[in-house]
Specification:
Helices cover 55% and strands 23% of the residues. By secondary structure, the chain is an alpha+beta fold. The protein has two domains: 2-61; 84-176, Ribosomal protein S6/Translation elongation factor EF1B (Alpha-Beta Plaits, 2-Layer Sandwich).
Length: 179
């Protein structure tokens, strides 16, 4: 008889625990913490959209190490092909372009600035050229398209006699660090 009473006590305790678990589960299921099925679906959709947005944001960063290597190679190629290593290459290029377009070179002044941290030395060029308008236009076009990298800062045109036009250019270019 003691065994049956002991078993009943254990069974009552187990049923009480199960009833408490059921009540707790019902409270959680119907509470605003969990929310309705519709609110859970809306939350899931919001989180999905946020994940997609963040994935798009980090997409450019994929394979960044390879992109950096490629960019460094492109910069090195640009420096080798478009920037001179010697001052004489600049005057040679301007002289060649002037000869090709029929423009006469007047005074040319070079101002070499302090080197920049990236290993380039800026050079400002002030030059006077003369010729007819069409020749000067072709000259400026050829300066912009030349393999040597020139930045045209300013242009001043002045008329002279017999259709000859004077052109004053302020240009900028760079020398490589090895210069």
């Amino acid at each position: 008889m003691a065994e049956i009473t002991d078993t009943r006590q254990k069974l009552k305790a187990a049923i009480a625990v199960l009833v408490l678990v059921d009540v707790a589960m019902a409270a959680v299921f119907f509470s605003p913490i969990v929310g309705s099925q519709r609110s859970r679906k809306e939350e899931l959709d919001r989180l999905w959209k946020e994940q997609q947005r963040k994935t798009r944001e980090v997409e450019p960063l994929r394979n960044i190490d390879q992109k950096i290597k490629a960019a460094r190679q492109q910069i090195d190629d640009f420096y080798k092909t478009r920037l001179p290593a010697q001052n004489s290459a600049i005057s040679e290029a301007l002289g060649k372009l002037a000869a090709q377009t029929g423009v006469k070179i007047g005074e040319v002044k070079y101002k070499i600035k302090d080197p920049e941290p990236v290993g380039l030395r800026p050079i400002e060029i002030e030059a006077d050229f003369s010729g007819d308008y069409l020749q000067l236009a072709r000259f400026m076009n050829s300066v912009e398209r030349d393999s040597l990298f020139f930045i045209i800062d300013s242009i001043q045109l002045g008329g002279e006699q017999a259709g000859v036009v004077r052109l004053q250019l302020k240009l900028e270019t760079y020398l490589r660090a090895s210069a």
